[in-house]
Amino acid sequence: MGLTDRLRYLLNERIMFIDGAMGTMIQQLELTETDFRGELFQHHPCLLAGNNDILSLTQPHLIKDIHKQYLLAGADFISTNSFNSTSVAMADYHMENKIRELNVASARIALEALEDVTANKTGQERFVI
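^ that's the sequence the OP posted. Answer follows.
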């Protein structure tokens, strides 16, 4: 059964839930400029605080933990931490050259969180979107 057919089947069987706002969860962490920079961008020429997507590279464990919180709360779908990983948004931080890396890292982190939680559950199928 293909993905579309599986999703149709599951949606007919039960109500499915998507995760919540990643940005709100990140703001609750009260991260500093140093947290956003991490080791990777210590000497980057502009401020990075507020660039939530960069946390997929500098603080991946925090992003993974947020995904896991949503999954443990019952989310069937989690979205990657890549809402602003576009050339337009990353231009504000002079990071247009990191778009692919951000998107790949964000997808990998979400999949890892999903695998961690699903491995400890009853086999309920969940998805990264």
